[in-house]
Amino acid sequence: MPMLLLPILLLLSLVPSLPSERPPSCHEVRAAFQLQEIGRGRLVPEVPIQVSDLQICEPKTSTCCTRRMEESYQAAVRGKLTHNIQTLNFELKFMIVAHTSAFQETFTYLIDTATNNTLSLFDTKYRSMSQDAHESVKELFTDLSLNIMGADMPLEDAFSRFWDSLFPLVYNHLINPGIMSLSGEYLDCLRLTRQDMNPFGNYSSEMLTHLSESLWASRMMKQALSMAEQVINSTEHAGLTRECTHALVKMQFCPHCQGLTLIRPCVGYCLNVMRGCLASLASLDRPWREFIHLVEQLADQMSGSHDLEQSLLGIRDVVDKSIRYAESQGPYLSRMVEKVCGELQESPLKQLSEEKTMKEEVMEQPPISKLHSLGHLRRDFIKHVKPSRTFYTTLAERLCDGDLAVRDGSTCWNGEDVVESYTNLVVSSDFKDQVNNPEVKVRGSNVVINQIINKLRLFIQVNDPCHTAKG
Q: Where does the sequence pass through the membrane (predicted)?
């Protein structure tokens, strides 16, 4: 043997034999299938197979996917997209629900404060009829609270009942304090004749106008917040079309069928798929913007001359002025009442009016804490609600941001293969533009979303703050 060949033979004997190419396996696909909790690992074949019954992921040669895997993938993408929409909705929904609770708490606090403020008028200045007046005062503010809640409780009717119940007390304790008590029939007569005699003057007219507008703005804000919550809930349960589900599977899981478990979709591709899937939600964009604008107007309406705090606390002063006016008209009212209801018999022990002998007490309006200030609350609400104007037109962008898709410049999945960039047309989020969407066929609008859009538009039309008449 030639001496030159000997070292070469020795070297070759030391090198292990080169293994043949590793046989194809679906191990990584099975691992991803289980880790992402899509289904049981046994659904994934051990090695790529030749199949012809796949509906979505069309194999170029052999594949790691089966028809049953596709069904599991469809369930997975539906659940995932619904979860992602709910996650995006959460912050907006939390803000709406939190402010709904805060507004309700503030309304309740203001009603309670104004009730106690008005009761104190009788406890400090009109003590002789304080006990009898308490029930009427509480009933009045209960009616105002129901008005804010949206009940059919006209403001004029609430105050009419209050003045009707107050007139017999004023007549008995201030105008004719010598009468120990009045019969039920006489009290009924006083209540029935109150409107004809107008014993309390017109002090409540201007107050009713301001209070009516304040209550209207607060009531509409409460209803608007309820409407916003309905819209958000509807978008979470609108359902996905068959075309959308197939497009999502093709984007997220069809690469797995080729063993490409780590590749991510191109961002343009992702935007097309998501905009096609969310076309109905994007159609909410314009009515939602108009709705948010309306809500901002309602918040503005709750300030200035429509300030509910001042309107409610001002009731005490109006009641006081009205009672003093009736007292000043005592002789005239007595003559009118006697003509209609008959003469009264005075008690032998004529009492001096307690109000005539006591020093008039002046009570300042109770302060409203910042926690329960309607002005502070509405400013905070406007600050948080403004950014939500574009919520429904930017859903696709937010879904495709982060880990779901990759920007151009990195290898990505375009629905068919691994590429450097996505070259198809990327459509806008407008519903009308989806006719040109290359990835998702949008056949029509969503019934559930159409219903909520109609509700929004009706709410906007009916509750435009520019409309008059608020009672």
A: none
The CA–CA distances, whole Å, from 387 to 84, 232, 282 equal 19, 15, 16
Tokens 């400090």 correspond to 124
pLDDT above 80 for 277: yes
What letter does residue 471 receive in the DSSP assignment? -
End-to-end CA distance of the chain: 117
User: Looking at the domain assignment, is residue 17 inside a domain?
Assistant: no
Asked if residue 277 lies in contact with residue 431, where contact means CB atoms within 8 angstroms, the answer is no
**What is the DSSP-derived secondary structure letter of residue 88?**
H
Provide the residue range defining the domain that includes 161.
Answer: 69-462
The string of pLDDT tens digits covering residues 214-266 is: 898 888 999 999 999 999 988 887 778 999 999 999 999 999 999 999 999 99
Query: In this structure, is residue 28 part of a structural domain?
Result: no
* Integer Cα distance of 106 and 112 in angstroms: 10
| pLDDT band with cut points at 50, 70 and 90 for residue 357 | very low
Answer whether residue 41 is part of any domain. no
Domain total in the chain: 1
> In 349-464, which ranges are continuous DSSP H helix?
354-357, 374-385, 395-400, 447-462
**Residue reference for tokens 């309670």:** 112
Q: What is the pTM of this model?
A: 0.78
CA atoms of 311 and 331, how far apart (whole Å): 32
Cα(281)–Cα(146) distance, rounded to whole angstroms? 35
Look up residue 413 and give its amino acid.
Answer: W
Alpha-carbon distance 46 to 62, whole Å? Answer: 12
Burial, 225: exposed, middle or buried (Cβ in 10 Å; 0-12, 13-18, 19+)? Answer: buried
Contact 219, 104 (CB under 8 A): no
Q: Where are the alpha helices (DSSP H) in 237-351?
A: 242-252, 254-257, 267-277, 279-282, 285-301, 308-313, 315-328, 330-341
